[in-house]
Write a structure and sequence with these properties.
The protein has a 7-stranded mixed sheet with strand order 10-24-25-26-22-23-11. The chain has a 7-stranded mixed sheet with strand order 20-17-18-19-12-16-21, with no helix packed on it. The protein has 3 domains: 109 residues, Glutamyl-tRNA Synthetase, Domain 3 (Glutamyl-tRNA Synthetase, domain 3, Alpha-Beta Complex); 157 residues, Glutamyl-trna Synthetase, Domain 2 (Glutamyl-tRNA Synthetase, domain 2, Orthogonal Bundle); 141 residues, Ribosomal Protein L25, Chain P (Beta Barrel), CATH 2.40.240. By secondary structure, the chain is of the alpha/beta class. The relative contact order is 0.10. The radius of gyration is 31 Å and the shape is elongated. The longest helix has 16 residues. α2 packs across α11, α7 crosses α8 and α11 packs across α12. The protein contains 16 helices and 26 strands. It binds adenosine-5'-triphosphate and magnesium ion. Adenosine-5'-triphosphate binds next to α2 and β8. Its EC number is 6.1.1.18. This is Glutamine--tRNA ligase. Keywords: Aminoacyl-tRNA synthetase, ATP-binding, Cytoplasm, Ligase, Nucleotide-binding, Protein biosynthesis. GO terms for molecular function: ATP binding; glutamine-tRNA ligase activity.
Length: 581
């Protein structure tokens, strides 16, 4: 069994949630030969952040207890399921760094066995075919606080039921004309025990079984039995299934397994501003409100991957969130924190100016000529025609940089800095450039002195005239303090790039509250802003999917679909600081 799940983050104690406590105890008592879990997605959409928690838990348990975790497609509903979803779910689980045991499983591959067990239940007198209309069934189920009414078909003989179930299977009933129900208790305070439906008639092809079947098992019947078939020991699911557990236990008990699986429920993951309803996510895609399932604003695994999120960061996030029975909302900031953590030591640094303002260095020729005469320059520099090439590390940590290597940054007579780094009338506490604070260090190069700014007719600053101090390349000047550091890019040798700045898709804290028909009105118009940036040449050569830190801006990824060296496109993964309220 390969161990792909990392250990808990160093600053976190050993994982010891209530589920792990149960499994640990089961292992200590020798109750099972091996711990077996499963991740059971229904292939009716793409996986999202909520599923990531379930994946980390189920695969994590198997890894930590030397057990196995199956990937099982719960494909009992042919109406909504598609091969496209199956393929993407597999890709997503692997990308998250987990390995399922053996081949992927399908609930549909157990249809024959599930059918035979249904026959067994009929023979035991534990199930019957109900020919009431769906409406009658609904009404006669009663309601909370009001007992249901027995179906007139409840007392039919075993033989009658066997014959009717045969007819169901043979296609003699139209959709909805007959169902197989468990015979439990129509007066149970738990609605799930009021003779739940086991099988329904549905004349519909299935993506795995074709037209073999026109009856399909219900999820609540198929799930415990699929678990039992696979020898699952701990069937972990979300809290909304707590009320279904008595039926889960009823099914495995009636079929008579010596070592039945057990169901345990934990609180689902809710993250502020994040929509985790498959139905609504699907609507966003179908209505063209996003560019697709992998739109970088989507909380799908596909979207987060394209956004540049790392699997390490997502696993770290799930570890920090932990597992409990208490419902709550996790702050989106924690997700970003985990991403920053995982990117800090891996992303190469580069400079990109998102809102360029031209700076002309009036003493450029003299200054660079002076540099070349320095005996022991602290920065490797090479003068080629009008370009001073500065060799700088890609990462401030020397050990990491030994792997990443250096890059060459062109310094030229004209450079650009970010507009926000020069203010004519700066707000209080402003530490960057202004007429009152004319000196600043240019990251990776000189200290610059602004002599003058030029404005257009409307009074906007359009250019700065500046001088550099030749002695400050990699050195601090003597006798004066320079407060800030800003980033810059050569105006002539920088490469134009499209940079996509992402923000929350919904400004509402709880997008679950948004009605599915109002999604369009509620989308944050600022969730995607595109700027034309100028970036240092090392970025243009980035491979698609490579992640970078744009110094002082944040972490970015070369877009996996649209980036090309002749047309660089970067997505913002996360800004450097927590800008989120
Ligand atoms: P639905 O069943 O309504 O289509 P679902 O989100 O339950 O949606 P499944 O494919 O059935 O989708 O989910 C697979 C597994 O992921 C289930 O075990 C489910 O409990 C779990 N899961 C889904 N959403 C979350 C969440 N927000 N947090 C934790 N686990 C989740
Ligand atoms: Mg589900």
């Amino acid at each position: 069994m390969s161990k792909s799940s990392p250990n808990a983050p160093a600053d976190l104690p050993e994982k010891n949630d209530f589920i792990r406590a149960i499994v640990r105890e089961d292992v200590a008592q020798g109750r099972y030969d091996e711990i077996v879990t499963r991740f059971p997605p229904e292939p009716n959409g793409y996986l999202h952040l909520g599923h990531v928690k379930s994946i980390c838990l189920n695969f994590g348990l198997a890894n930590e207890f030397d057990g196995l975790c199956n990937l099982r497609f719960d494909d009992t509903n042919p109406e909504a399921e598609e091969q496209e979803f199956v393929d993407n779910i597999k890709q997503d689980v692997e990308w998250l760094g987990f390995h399922w045991a053996g081949a992927p499983r399908y609930a549909s591959s157990y249809f024959e066995q599930l059918y035979r067990w249904a026959v067994q239940l009929i023979e035991q007198g534990d199930a019957y075919v109900d020919l009431q209309t769906p409406e009658q069934i609904r009404v006669n189920r009663g309601s909370f606080g009001q007992a249901g009414i027995d179906s007139p078909y409840r007392t039919a003989s075993v033989d009658e039921n066997l014959a009717r179930f045969d007819d169901m299977k043979a296609g003699k009933f139209a959709n909805g004309a007959a169902v197989l129900r468990a015979k439990i208790d129509m007066a149970s305070p738990n609605m799930n025990l009021r003779d739940p439906v086991l099988y329904r008639v549905l004349h519909r092809e299935h993506h795995q079984t074709g037209d073999t079947w026109c009856i399909y098992p219900m999820y609540d019947y198929a799930h415990p039995l699929s678990d039992a078939i696979e020898g699952v020991t701990h069937s972990v699911c979300t809290l909304e299934f707590e009320d279904h557990r008595p039926f889960y236990d009823w099914v495995v008990d009636k079929i008579g397994f010596a070592k039945p699986p057990h169901q345990y429920e934990f609180a689902r993951l809710n993250v502020s501003h994040v929509l985790t309803s498959k139905r609504k996510l699907k609507r966003l895609v179908e209505d063209g409100l996003v560019s697709g399932w992998d739109d970088p604003r989507m909380p799908t695994v596909a979207g987060m991957r394209r956004r540049g999120y790392t699997p390490e960061g997502l696993r770290d996030f799930c570890d920090r969130v932990g597992v409990s029975k208490a419902d709550g909302v996790v702050d989106f900031g924690l997700l970003e924190f985990s991403q920053r953590q995982s990117l800090e030591d891996t992303a190469a640094r580069a400079m990109a100016v998102l809102h360029p303002l031209k700076v002309t260095i009036t003493n450029f020729d003299q200054a660079v000529a002076d540099v070349m005469t320095l005996k022991k320059p602290s920065v490797q520099a090479r003068l080629e025609s009008d370009v001073l090439w500065l060799t700088q590390p890609k990462h401030p940590n020397a050990e990491i940089n030994a792997v990443l290597g250096d890059r060459d940054i062109p310094f030229t007579r004209q450079i650009v800095i970010d507009r926000a780094d020069y203010e004519v009338t700066p707000p209080e506490g402003y530490k960057r450039l202004s007429p009152d604070n004319r000196e600043i260090r240019l990251r990776n190069s000189y200290i610059i002195h602004i002599d003058e700014h030029r404005t257009d007719d409307a009074g906007n600053v359009v250019e700065l005239l500046a001088t550099i101090d030749p002695k400050t390349l990699g050195n601090n000047p003597e006798g004066r303090k320079v407060k800030g550091v800003i980033h810059w890019v050569s105006a002539s040798h920088g490469v134009p790039a499209e940079v996509r700045l992402y923000d929350q898709l919904f400004t509402q804290e709880d997008p679950a509250k948004i009605d599915i028909d109002n999604l369009a009105q509620e989308i944050n118009p600022e969730s995607l802003r595109v700027v034309q940036a100028l970036v240092e040449p090392s970025l243009a050569n980035s491979t698609a999917g490579a992640r970078w830190q744009f110094e002082r801006e944040g972490y970015f990824v070369a877009d996996s679909r649209d980036h090309a060296p002749e047309h660089p496109v970067f997505n913002r993964i996360v800004s450097l600081k927590d800008g989120f309220k």
